[in-house]
Specification:
Layout: E1 8-9, H1 18-31, H2 39-52, E2 56-60, H3 63-73, E3 79-82, H4 89-95, E4 100-103, H5 115-120, E5 126-130, H6 141-151, E6 154-158, E7 166-167, E8 170-171, E9 178-182, E10 195-199, H7 202-211, E11 216-218, E12 221-222, H8 233-243, H9 246-264, E13 270-272, E14 279-280, E15 286-290, H10 298-307, E16 310-311, H11 338-346, E17 347-350, H12 358-369
Parallel strand pairs: 1-16, 3-4, 3-5, 5-6, 6-9
Antiparallel strand pairs: 2-10, 7-8, 7-14, 9-10, 11-12, 13-15, 15-17
Helix pairs in contact: 1-8, 2-8, 3-4, 3-7, 9-12
Bound molecules: pyridoxal-5'-phosphate (PLP).
Length: 371
């Protein structure tokens, strides 16, 4: 037996008591229905529409295939303007559709795409914008939607971080032509692997549902070169179980967010991103910025935490635009992306998940404050 405390990771998946899963599994075994839009799949779509306050949801095997299908469903081609400050899947989904990502800089106050930089990046090849609600903090949806209308562009929000986020009381997933969620194990709400597309109307959902099932409409009708993006009954059943725990999980995440925020308030050189009073946050991430006034640089603090068993993460470093398949693109030049470049050099995301204990938070804060 070792008395070493186990590492604290940046996140830990929400796993309800195993006994609670058994009735769902028994039901699957009784139904003998394991995928292809089975009963749990249909129930989870309905339950998520209600929980999130949106009209139409299509479940997917993962968020990346959902992003790829969203682009396909709108016939997006040419260039799509997006943020370098995200997980690589945002841009990879474009590459798999033969689309060229064009990176625009973020607003340093929000870490989301700066609308003025979006507009400056539009060319005759531009057909769409793919903004990310980074850390679950809403983009400037009004400005983005106005730009899209002015230039006749589609908008697909990568809402992978934004489960259950509301602004002025309404879901932020209602914005844009489509919004895409990820239910990966690292996300606030997860189905081990999974994802979803939020559609504005039933016809759009129907088209997306066809695309995720090989383009099949019925036994003798295939309408498009679709893909297999279906969520299985196992994942859907787990999602339904998890929904019964999600309110408590979100409440605890918001508590942890407040705890960090108060405890770190006096630490010179450490900045927490401010809350927007109009937003109901989901506590998905807790990013801090390690500024020049702090005694160590970001990487030194990252290593110091790691040495103490705290596995914080540098989300998002490197920038997507700095990976080798993107770096040769003109828009990937760091000179075009000064704010994203600085954010990527300063950010650390601290551990946040429902089972994180107050004593562990205190330990993390003491390590950050006590250098
Ligand atoms: C997690 C994530 C994805 C990809 O989702 P998967 O379900 O893992 O495929 C896409 N975009 C962002 C911003 C993400 O954080």
């Amino acid at each position: 037996m070792s008395d070493a405390t186990p590492p604290i990771y940046v996140t830990q998946p929400l796993l309800p008591p195993l006994a609670e899963l058994m009735p769902y599994l028994e039901q699957i075994w009784a139904n003998k229905y394991v995928t292809n839009g089975g009963p749990f799949h249909q129930q989870l779509e309905a339950a998520l529409c209600e929980y999130l306050g949106v009209g139409h949801i299509s479940l997917f095997a993962n968020g990346t295939i959902a992003l790829m299908t969203a682009l396909q469903s709108l016939g997006v081609k040419g260039e799509v303007i997006t943020t370098p400050y995200s997980f690589v899947a945002t841009a990879h989904a474009m590459m798999w559709n033969g689309i060229r990502p064009v990176f625009a800089d973020i607003d340093p106050a929000t870490f989301n795409l700066d609308p003025a930089r979006i507009e400056a990046a539009i060319t005759p090849e531009t057909t769409a914008i793919m903004p990310v609600h980074c850390y679950g903090r809403p983009c400037d949806t009004q400005a983005i939607d106005a730009i899209a209308r002015r230039h006749d562009l589609k908008v697909i929000y990568d809402a992978a971080h934004a489960f259950a986020v509301r602004q002025d009381g309404a879901s932020i997933l209602r914005h844009g032509d489509l919004a895409v969620l990820s239910f990966h194990g690292t996300k606030v709400f997860h189905t081990f692997e999974g994802g979803a597309i939020v559609s504005p109307d039933a016809a759009t959902k129907r088209h997306i549902d066809n695309l995720k099932n090989f383009g099949i409409v019925d036994e003798v009708t295939v309408v498009a070169p679709g893909i297999n993006g279906k969520m299985s009954e196992f994942n859907a059943a787990f999602g339904l179980l998890q929904l019964t725990h999600i309110d408590a999980a979100l409440a605890r995440r918001r508590q942890i967010d407040e705890h960090y925020r108060c405890a770190l308030a006096g630490v010179a050189g450490i900045t927490c991103l401010p809350h927007d009073g109009s937003v109901t946050p989901n506590g998905a991430y807790f990013p801090i910025l390690v500024g020049p006034a702090y005694g160590l640089d970001r990487d030194a603090l990252h290593h110091k935490l790691r040495d103490a068993g705290i596995v914080a993460r540098r989300y998002f470093y490197p920038l997507i635009s700095d990976f080798p398949m993107y770096r040769p693109m003109a828009s990937a030049d760091p000179a075009n992306l000064p704010h994203a470049t600085r954010a990527a050099a300063q950010v650390i995301c601290l551990p946040i998940y429902p089972d994180l204990e107050s004593g562990q938070i205190e330990r993390i804060v003491a390590l950050i404050a006590g250098q």
